[in-house]
Structures are given as structure tokens and as C-alpha cells.
What we know:
By secondary structure, this protein is mostly helical. It has one helix at 3-44. The chain has a domain at 1-39.
Amino acid sequence: xxxxxxxxxxxxxxxxxxxxxxxxxxxxxxxxxxxxxxxxxxxxxxxxxxxxxxxxxxxxxxxxxxxxx
Length: 69
């Protein structure tokens, strides 16, 4: 084999590997996002609290003072 043929074969192998990895990422990314979303929600609400309830309204409290003033 000549040097040119080796270079073409190596470039072709990298090209095929890149396409295969890209296809795997396209397939696996939605599954990975679903798994991470599920894990994040499970960790956040471990106490069983109702996450849809809003915190109590604090309209009667004054805002904190500005720093230095």
C-alpha cells in the first residue's frame, strides 16, 4: 500500500466512527434526558411535600434594607 491509501483508509475509518457515534447520541440523548429528569425530581421531593403548593405570602413584611444605606 502506498502512503496515500493508508491516509484515505484512516480518514474513512474516522468518518465512519464519527457517523456511528452521532447516530448513537441521537438515539440515546432523549433516553438520557428522561432518566436525569426522573432522578432530579425524585431527589428534590423526597419528603413527600406537595410541590404544587406555593409558599405563604409575605406581603406584610418590609423588604430588606439596601447594603450601606
